[in-house]
Design goal:
- By secondary structure, the protein is mostly helical.
- The mean pLDDT is 93.
């Protein structure tokens, strides 16, 4: 997925965001069944799936900023 994102920032950014969003319910349910704690499960989501969403947003930001600079020149 990272190789795709390096080559095509828009597609890779969308893939990272979808992956992070799609994995969140699974990570939450798995941790909630183990600990029965909302706070701990939310913390695990932030540690495991939130970085995927942030990376995806950064790839999208880079794509749109690069496109704006390219049309300026």
């Amino acid at each position: 997925m990272l190789v795709i994102a390096w080559k095509w920032e828009l597609t890779g950014g969308i893939l990272f965001i979808i992956t992070g969003a799609a994995l969140s319910p699974f990570v939450y349910l798995m941790n909630y069944n183990r600990t029965h704690s909302f706070g701990i499960s939310l913390g695990k989501i932030l540690m495991i799936t939130f970085p995927f969403i942030v990376v995806g947003l950064l790839f999208l930001l880079n794509h749109f900023l690069y496109r704006a600079r390219r049309t300026e020149i």
